[in-house]
Amino acid sequence: MGRIPRKYLINRLITLALTVLIAASMIWVIPRLSPVDPAEIALGRMASGAGAVANAEEILAQLRAQMGIDQPLIVQYFKYLKGALVFDFGLSTATFPTPVSALIAQALPWTLGLMILSLVITFVIGNLLGALMVWDHSPKLAKVAIPAAMVFTSIPPILSGLLLMWIFAAKLRWFPLTGAYGLTVDPGWNWAFVQSVLHHGFLPAMAIVIVTFGFWALGMRGLMITVQGEDYVKLAEAKGLKPRYILYRYMIRNAILPQITAFALKIGLLIAGQVLVERIFAYNGMGKLLYDAILDQDFPVIQGVSYVIILITALSVFIVDLIYPFIDPRIRHEGG
Amino acid sequence: MSDALLDLRDVRKVYGDPDTGLVALNDLSLTIRKDEPEIVTIAGESGSGKSTLANLVLGFTRPTSGQIMFDGTDVGNASAKQMKAYHRQVQAVFQDPFGSYNPFYRVGHVFDMVIRNFKLSSNKTEARQMMEEALNAVGLTGDDVLRKYPHQLSGGQRQRIMMARAYMVKPRLIVADEPVSMVDASLRASILDVMMRLRDEGGISFLYVTHDLSTAYQVGDRILLFYQGTLVEHGKATDVISNPQHPYVQLLIDSVPKPDPTQRWQGEIILPAEEELRTAHSTGCRFVPRCPHAQPACSAALPPAYEVGPRGHRAACILHAPPPQA
Amino acid sequence: MTSTDHQAEIAADKAARKRAKRMKRFDNPWLNPKLIWGAGLLLAIVALGLIGRMLWNLELVYTGSTPLKLPPLGFENLRKQPGVLDYPLGTDGSGRDILALIIMGAPNSLFVGLLASLIGMSTGIVLGFTAGFVGGRTDDVIRVLSDVMITIPPLLILVVFQSAFGDVSLTMMALLIAGFVWQSPTRLIRAQVLSMKQSGYVQMAQLSGASTTDIMFKEMLPNLIPYLFGSFIASVTTAIVTAVGLEVLGLGPQRIPTLGRTIYEAINAGALIQNLWWWWGIPTLLLATMFIGLLLINLGLDEVSNPRLRKA
Amino acid sequence: QNVAREDTVIFDLDRTIKDPDNFNWFTPGTKRMHGAHQTMWEPLFILNYNTGALDPWLATGFEANEDSTEFTLTLRDGVEWSDGEAFNADDVVFTVNMALENEEISSREASTIRAQVASVEKVDDLTVTFALKEPNPRFVVENFGVRIFGSFLIMPEHVWNGEDPATFAFNPPIGTGPYTFTSAATNRAIWDRNDDWWGAKTGFMDLPEPQRVIFLETGGAESRAQLMVTNELDAAQNVGVGTFEAIAAQNPNVIAWHSDYPYAASDPCARQLEINTTVTPWDNPAMRKAVAHIIDRSQIVNVAYEGTTVPSETMFAQYGSMAPFIDAVKEAGYGLPATADVAAGQALIEEAGWTKGGDGIYEKDGQQLSVDIHVNSASTEYTRTIDIVVEQLNRAGIAAKAVPVENGVFWGEVLPFGKYEMSYSWLSCGSVNEPWASMGRYTVSDVVPVGERSPGFNNTARWSGDAAAAYSAIVDQMADLTLGDPEIPGMVAEAYQHLDAEMPFIPLVQAAKLLPMNTTYWTGWPTAENYYNHPFFWWNHTHQIIHNLEKAG
Amino acid sequence: MSEPVLSVRGLKVYYATPDGDVLATDDISFDLERGETLGLVGESGSGKTTATSGILRMVSSPGRIAGGRVTLDGEDMIALSDEEFRKRRWSKLALIPQGAMNSLNPTMKISAQIADVVRTHTGAAPDRARVLELFQMVGLPERIYEMYPHELSGGMKQRVCIAMAVALNPTVIIADEATSALDVVVQRVVAQTLAKVRDALGVSMIMIGHDMGLMAQMVDRIAVMYAGKIVEIAPVADMFARPGHPYSKILIESVPSLTERRPMKITEGITHDPRNPPEGCIFQLRCPHVNDGCTKPQPMRELRPGQTVACHRAEELEGAHV
Ligand SMILES: Nc1ncnc2c1ncn2[C@@H]1O[C@H](COP(=O)(O)OP(=O)(O)OP(=O)(O)O)[C@@H](O)[C@H]1O
Ligand SMILES: Nc1ncnc2c1ncn2[C@@H]1O[C@H](COP(=O)(O)OP(=O)(O)OP(=O)(O)O)[C@@H](O)[C@H]1O
Ligand SMILES: [Mg+2]
Ligand SMILES: [Mg+2]
Q1: Chain C residues lying within 8 Å of B60, measured CB to CB
Q2: How far apart are the C-alpha atoms of D111 and D130, rounded to whole Å?
Q3: Is residue E296 part of a domain?
């Protein structure tokens, strides 16, 4: 508790750096295992629009130079690592020569803002429902309804998105169909914009929520069962505390701790998992960027997005590790 | 020292960093002789390093420094093969009899394992006979228990079977780490009785680890009392318990509740703020913070074990330091 | 007096019978109703695949082998065509029979899930045991490796494979997914091995001169079975969800009918607005069935290994 | 400021605007399709797909010298950039020179100019002369006439001067069009009417009615359909016929090119099966011909297109402007039937020495007759077509297999290098008002060995030999004839005999696009009845569409 | 004699298991007088904790209260609604749980855990001074106010539980093996603390344990439980001097002495399956003095004033060693 010991911090930082380095190297190596030549592909894509391209050799040479693939692999690798340090992933091949970092800069706020928010909502709802599945005082209905609702978890997110869109946007017209904000509002810090963003964000967020809450609910259920049998919960009951208070302060508070670590570990996966939801709602976050990049085989962008996702995951694990002693007083920073 | 069965020389165990870590066992020397089997009791409060000693002797952990010699072999540096041979000579019974059984197998498995691995017998009927004999030694019969699962037995039965298992190997030494602390009072006696019989009839020595002084008094030949990793007093069990010399041991013995409503505790003891003096840096007597007789000299150096009575009764307290020779 | 005796007897008899009945029900914890239902649902899907293959004309999974967009029997599509017996579950927009598609597709999805988690589990067992037993550097390496794998999105790997090989097979897909499901069994087993290493019976085995392999496989492994089973089921679920996710993105096998790809094609063709609900709905229903089956097995296993959950 | 919905027209955008702050169209990306070249940048001419005529826009006309090596273009008087500066020959010369001098600007139009133009000169403020490297009667339509998708766009010299054309972002952008840029994000761009537009002032044209034009990313077929139903979209990208019917059922105001089945408008690139003529057994023309016999085009139309298109009769896109050439080929007897003649095909195969094996597949010397067909996996239209072809070939005794590959790989690695046996393509694309653009792509001058990139993606089938040489000779001759020369149809038919005999590719079907258009707020959309031009609103000619829109009701 | 503060009559708590009900607490009755400390002893699994949870109405599935009556301060506890009963908990009937080690919420500060029970029952959170006063009463240092449970030693945690139990001046405290997990020295300190607050506040107490030595030190009367039944109740002096039930005798005699070495009593046999108690005496399978009469029901009967026992041979065996 209290200050984070220096030695521990350094230790964790090294682990963080190592994880990111290895992961970043892997995403660099993997595309290079593929026998295709990215410059040829970029040229091919250029040609695919009109069925022909003039001065192919000339363009190819330029593409190679601009992509930096005319250099020896080892030079490319270190350049990549150096670039990654400052979020410079080179230029997108699909929208050459837009810098990848510019694309990410555009997408990241949306993902961080709304998508993370929906992940947080999922986390909260999932864990709450998981807790209710176990709690003695939950309504009978909850014990039947919640497991039933978990069937949604088997639905691919895109389908849940489309169904929500179909019901709530197309039929009921409660929510807009697509986009991140209305056509008539000006982006900025004004109420109309914020309102519009929330209104537009609701359905995509729900699409994610209903298919992922089950994961958390199941995990929480198991943890709650363990906690429910703990002596301190029994004593709390003997103390005559109100059941609801026991639920929050004694049961959930303790059961949630491993879930927080799990959340940090899953965050990257969850962001990547949203690609199609973002696509059908034309919601321009990292997921959509990744999806488009996949369709275009735009490896610099795929690399950049993956790197950012990796970084977010690694950082969240790092942060959770650091703050864990504050949320779980039993754990002390080792090595300090 | 060819007559030493087990010989510990300045054995030290530090958990964590050798300089700043926790000293679980502080430079212990102890000898158990070959010729006369005895029950050596290791006693002390929780965390005083009793199990650490047991694990060292069993070869589950290696000493940080010092040497553990068993009949000429160095246990601290034994190879896997030597260790196997060693375990033919040294067996154990643990505190939790239930945990000592693999829940997946029937009770017979613990015997089968021993017979197979130590090649005690390759013949089925002979093997069965060996089991039967070992079980009889602890007052059980094979038909009763071997085909059962561990959870189908009482705690006392489980522990006695463990004794039987150790006995079947016919070792020279059995390390019994709190063998009765999880067994009901009414069943305790039968297990301790088995120990005494194995000593007397089987010629097996015991390292009996316990925090219960009364059983130590009842069965132990010798007793060693530990406080926070250091040996504070040792001697014949009857001598030490009826006439304790170290302030800690006195407190300990005084605190054992007497089963007599007319002899209730006199006076009140106060525990000072707990403070452990057992990192490798600590000097002096570990008991200083709680000792009613503490004096500045106590913190200077670890007091040696002064002779305080006949038959090797010694206590590590400067109260018993012989007056400086003029 | 005798009459009360008699009544008591009857009552006792009743109680005994009731108790016997209850005992029977609880006799074998594996006869857990959730477990049975769950396994039943999965078996039904396997049976659909096996029996379907024998009874149904599988040629109908080829493009253009049926009329387009026919509804299931008893329904009508937007063009007012009724469903026909030849294609009882309707047809898709490329002229394929939905029944044939799911007969081929559902076992494929299950296959990917099972294979991926089988590989993942085996890796997890080996690595978990190694990490827990060997410890030290090896443990560190395995831990960092699994941390790294957690941070890498599976999508990336799939994309690269597709561009390199043009297409992935079911087995390849399973292999790739296996690369993402081994971490949690590894961690679980490692933790269990570490705690078991301290356990009395492992120490007893050591004292009995058992070798390391004996200790690992004869003493530890049997006790891990419930964990392994639960973890296996959980990873099958993860693997199926991942596989379907990738297929729905269009990144799965291109030429093999799978439930995910069928949904992908339905969505691509605008099946929702055309009210071609059977096209996406039937594969989704099958996925849900599979998922419920796995969920039930998981809950059932929980109850088997954790008696606190069993209802009296 | 807010603009009412009824004054706004919303077009569908089928992809993300990756870099909404960049308006340098010389670099690749979506820098034009989100409204820039539909509302802000105007072309010099617009090709009319119905009549084949070049409608003047920023230019008023052109003249060519005898051998089509020098072109003189006359610009319209009174054209202004939206910042008030005059648009004149200096801008044209500056922009063309920029393309000539900067090899690193890679957009297709700039490369084409670089490949064709030797030099450009200003004659006076409204006259520019181009000297070409080689005779090219189609110079204007190819470069300045919106032949397909875009045209070479003229940029304002006073803004671009001194900038590095490879990196300049051109933000804020200006153009000569009736709309100016208002804002853009990755999923939409907004353009507002410039009421001070030169065209209205000079009487060239009235101000268009819509006050605002929005290009909105819709996120796939389902969402664009929903948006169409809820009137949140005025013109949508391609949808399937079932989807269109569903939309129309829910919103009767939604129309398409044809008011009835098959609704869709044709695309300039007809679909075909490319055959690598260097790989045995397909190096044998008879075998290729056999495949042509076996393929049933009408089944492709019915299943892959749900009847929204027609089978190809020749290699050409079947536009009105192409009718003379198509007719000439058909009259000469080289038109393709809609249905298959499997027996004839099998006869040819058997003649080549193949016999049917037990499993119904042809065999020769213990080898099965098999073929891998590469197909771009980017669109289900492609994969479905090939699925059907594969089925047809298999039934006829050829063990065919589809090999779907990703778009970039298909175009970058498979097609140009000839690394395929057969592949699904639309490489004869090009001709919309004259035949050479398509036919010129199969001449022997473009033949390179397999493994080398075929120049300009031409003749990837590597068709050579006597017939190919004879064909090439005729086509080369055609190249230098001016547009509309009466000799041409005859020459087309003459050359086509070699194509028909050797089949380096097999025309399959016409391509079609079904674009829903919403008449709730706007009428005047291009349709078969109101054919002022074709309806592809992501092309540079969309200016015409916007000018034709009228408020509904 | 005044009316008992707590009276238990015929309490039955059963656990349902796959093979039938475990009769964990079967028909037990006893009274607790005002200001008195009653010891409840018995071997592990004899149903001591279960009896407590029956009294506190905290039996959770698969257990159930199968019958009985509990009167506290003249109020029938069984008749109260759940919500009413919740209010009685702690304010009248406090518990020092078995295994205080695990009975404190690891994520809440010690002070907060004391505060929440006070707040729930009085409506107002206690001020710091009150909490410190409680700490002082049980000999805990002030510094633990801001600490978390894991930062305390076992003995300290046990004392926190004691402080918590007395926070509301309850009428009855049930101390369930409050010291069995502790070292003798610490055990002595904790036991003394308990005795001190008991005497200071005049509460009545039920002390559960299996250590006869400790009982001898602490309690006024002893109730001996075996396999779910109370087999003997007697004042502590009588119990040690003249135990009436063979099982009580065994318990007392198996306490090893620290003063004389003597051969230990060995009792054989295994406790019966708790689902299938034998007819008649509950102890017959292990009793060294078993005879035919033991298969008859053994009701509790008065052996002498204040001492009741469930053995038909009690008089006959008096004085005999086991
Ligand atoms: N593996 C370990 N790593 C670090 N510290 C340890 C380890 N094992 C034991 N210790 C510490 O060493 C000290 C001695 O422990 P040990 O288990 O020997 O005590 P003990 O006397 O057996 O106690 P108990 O009576 O509770 O069994 C304790 O403070 C314990 O916390
Ligand atoms: N949840 C349960 N399900 C089934 N049987 C149970 C359950 N809880 C307790 N029991 C059984 O009830 C009996 C009494 O248990 P209880 O905990 O009351 O004993 P105890 O006297 O408090 O023992 P200890 O001294 O070990 O605390 C035991 O046989 C026990 O196995
Ligand atoms: Mg120990
Ligand atoms: Mg208890």
Answers
A1: 203, 206
A2: 16
A3: yes
Is D448:D458 a contact under the CB 8 Å cutoff? no
Identify any residues that bridge with B31 across adjacent strands, giving them in sequence order.
B7
CATH for A125 = 1.10.3720.10
Q: Report the complex ipTM.
A: 0.78
Using an 8 Å Cβ cutoff, are B38 and B224 in contact?
no
Domain membership flag for residue E271: yes
Query: Do A and B share at least 3 CB pairs under 8 Å?
Result: no
Range of the domain at A146: 109-295
B96 contacts B182 by C-beta, under 8 angstroms: yes
The domain that contains B123 carries what CATH number?
3.40.50.300
C229 lies in some domain: yes
| pLDDT tens sequence across D190-237 | 999 999 999 999 999 999 999 999 999 887 787 888 889 989 899 999
Name the amino acid, one letter, at D2: N
Domain count, chain E: 1
Q: Say how many CA atoms lie within 13 Å of E250 toward its Cβ.
A: 25
Q: Which residue has the higher pLDDT, D81 or A160?
A: D81
CA distance A51 to chain C (A): 21
Please state, in angstroms and rounded to a whole number, the distance separating the CA atoms of residues D314 and C48: 47
| Interchain contact, C27 vs E20, CB within 8 Å | no
Q: What are the chain C neighbours of A158 within 8 Å (beta carbons)?
A: 248-249, 263, 267
CB contact under 8 A, E217 and B258: yes
Could you give the residue ranges of the DSSP H alpha helices within D175-296? 198-202, 221-229, 241-250, 285-294
Assigned domain for A11 exists: no
Q: How far is the CA of B51 from the centre of ligand 1 (A)?
A: 7
Structural domain count of chain B: 1
Tokens 């020397």, residue?
B29
Residue E262's domain comprises 233-321
Contact D535, D297 (CB under 8 A): no
Residue B24 Cβ contacting ligand 1 at under 6 Å: yes
**Residue C294's domain is classified under what CATH number?**
1.10.3720.10
Domain count, chain A: 1
User: Which two three-digit tokens encode residue A102?
Assistant: 């510019």
- CB-based contact A170:A177 (threshold 8 Å): yes
The whole-model pTM stands at 0.80
D283 half-sphere exposure, CB direction, 13 A CA radius: 6
Answer whether residue E207 is part of any domain: no
The C-alpha torsion from D87 through D92 and D97 to D100, rounded to 10°, is 140
Amino acid at residue number D399: A
Q: Does residue C7 belong to any structural domain of this protein?
A: no
B47 touches ligand 1 (CB under 6 Å): yes
In which element (H, E) is residue E238 found?
helix E236-241
Length of chain C measured in residues: 312
Q: For D34-85, write each residue's pLDDT tens digit.
A: 999 999 999 999 999 888 889 999 999 999 998 899 999 999 999 999 999 9
Residue C56 lies in domain: 32-311
Residue B127 lies in a domain: yes
In chain E, which residue's Cα lies nearest the Cα of A324? E107
Q: Mean pLDDT across the stretch A207-235? A: 86
Helix (H) or strand (E) holding D400: strand D399-405
Residue from A34, A37, A46, A275 whose CB has the most chain D CBs within 10 Å, to mutate: A46
Give backbone dihedrals phi and psi of D285, rounded to 5 degrees, phi first: -55, -30
Q: What is the mean pLDDT of residues D252-257?
A: 95
Task: Specify whether the CB–CB gap between B266 and B226 falls below 8 A.
Answer: no
Asked, for residue E173, whether it belongs to a domain, the answer is no
Domain for residue A278, yes or no? yes
Residue B31 lies in a domain: yes
List Cα–Cα distances, A167 to A160, A170, A282, C264, in angstroms. 11, 6, 17, 20
Residue D430 near chain A (CB below 8 Å) = yes
Judge whether A134 and A225 are in contact, CB under 8 Å: yes
Does residue A97 lie within any of the structural domains? no
Helix (H) / strand (E) element for D103: namely none
